[in-house]
Amino acid sequence: MQKKMNTNSRKVAAAVAENKVVLGLSGGVDSTAAALLLKEKGFEVTGLYFDVTTEADEKSEKSRAAAEKAAKEMDIDFVYKNVSREFNETVLADFCDEYLSGRTPNPCIICNPLIKFKTLKETADAKGARYISTGHYASVVFREDVYYIKTAANKKKDQSYMLYRLPQEILSGLILPLGDFESKDDIRKFVKENDLSNADSPDSQEICFIDSDEGYAEFFRKNGYAAERGDFIDMKGDIIGSHKGIINYTVGQRKGLGGTFGRPMFVTRLDAKNNTVTLGEKEDLYSYKVFSGGNFFTETECEKMPSNLENKKVLAKVRYSAKPSFAVIRTVEEKGPGADPEGFVIETLFEEKQKAVTPGQSIVFYYPDGRVAGGGFIK
């Protein structure tokens, strides 16, 4: 009798869990719309607000208040979590290390698997919820025993690129309600029709921990990183001027170089070891071949490429805003100083030249139907 009761209790708990979802709630229109859509489908929604600030300021307090207000207006539970310690030790530390090494990182790609979705999953487990959710523009599909991130219907807002490193443990319980919306205007209209006050709230900024009015250089200065001046050099290695510190530049940059060179010049390479910034002409920015390390593939959940992709044609993009282009990918051995820890990298050979391929950014691979196959960090 006791065994039967325990079995029934587990069934009841499982049924209750199937109806619960923990949603990342920022207070913006996208996460609010996601919460409304989940409620419409009968889910019991808990809004989780992430705070990455070590010390509360006006901006963070305002953001938290907006999220709490949205939760109250929707009549859903609200949970606040400060993840600043974990964020500083992983995302912020990596961001600073990468920039000071002459690379241009995308902190969201590090934050998503290690902080945001990890915290969502932990909170869901603690609350007995089967599912987690966010307001990202993407979808999750299940194909041949594997869960995949897939591109959104709204190609201009598609955020699948940011989610390529999510493991099956996360994807198997992830709901992305905004994947089928074709317009941001439709999202705002939907929220407004539900009489919520944040329907016209502005889009979130590109990097949450850098004030858009200050910029990167000021952020590094405030955090105790000095910008050491060095040399601009041309493609031949000759000195042609003086730069203000490599943290002020990224590959492809033309404006703000702080000098005149007689013709338009672009940043083509950053060398932290020698503290030089290489400048070239526009045609010097284009390349067919890209190498990536620290790769992660959806099917293998590690750096090893699935056999069905080796030497095969895929779609790939070298930055969030890039248009996917056809390319062939293969595994190649890498040895010597600076070699990837795995001893191999992924070589991507594009059919069309790619502009301003930037070390530190991610290259993401897609199947033709829009499923994310994986990706890695550009070397």
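[next item in queue]
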Amino acid sequence: MNLSKVTTFPTEHVENCTKGCGRSRLGLKHLCLMAKLISGIQQVGIGIPDVHKAWKWYRNAFGIDIRMFEEAAEAALMTRYTGGEVHARHAALALHMGGGAGMEIWQFTSRESADQHKFSLLKNGLLVTKIKCRDAKMGHESLADQKLGAVCKDPSGKNCFSVIDPFGNPFIASETEHWYQKKQSIFGGIEGVMIGVADMDKSLEFYKDVLEIDEVIYDKTGVFEDLASLTDGDKEFRRVRLQPSNRNSGAFSDVFGMFHIELLQPINADSKPHNLEGRFWGDQGYIHLCFDVNEMGSIKTRAEKLNSPFTVDSGDTFSMGEAAGRFAYLEDPDGSLIELVETDKITVSKKLNWFLTLSKKRKKKPLPRWLFSVMALNRVKD
């Protein structure tokens, strides 16, 4: 979609728009995009000291076992976030056929990965990943030998519990009715994330206007039981959960499913340093939030207009093992890293040497379910 062809609305539309966009930027031309460009969260990037050990844990704990790609290569375009030097890494992207986003499990191979900073909910940045769960009590029992919080209610009234993986990364498993395959696994993929912010209003402006995650599900302030088991979870916070009012029906929109982000701002407590401070992109801990998108050029134009330019851009296409596409990065107001990926090629079955190139037309509607059933052949078993 060419932004120059987007309808321009008068100022009164900014205040009275009924499409949930809530835009009020600068009182200027209002871009009410009828076709959304983000299909869903594609993955959350996690820096790990041992990619094979970590992925085995995520397979056994959550069932995230479908290999989308795995490769060893140099991250030549990421020097802005790796100390000005090109570093090598081993990475794997894995999905869950229950739906939801995947995990990009990432390990430096050219340097020793720095230890993760001490976790705190008072920090800014990507703090917690939300995992889909069919039954919180059953999920809690299945992970009884892990570091768990008690089963309780989140602010939306859903049963949930927290779990810390062996590498110090916090997750919240939360019950959901959104599933891609009906197979009765306890857990699914990633449904959302929690992001610490210093200024809620600035952050809401960024996520609503730049990324079009514009519908407020709740906006609550208080002390919350679902955070109680996490470091500094006994403090008072303002929590705003957002989801898109309208999602693009892209190739992967069905399998990634509906998603949310939750912005977290401490009240009456100073924010601690950003969780990326003193770390390279790729060091241990959460490193980025990645969205699956269409029409990267249009997103780049809009981001520049809204003073949130790309900081990294691979250009027309980039190889990611057996997959290919274009990727870019931008930063939210606190410097949290947001990755955008427009996929051009995927592996349907490596065993069958079957790869699928996505034309512009094919990118705009969900891929058939039988194709993902074939992709289940890429499952990694222990």
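[queue empty]
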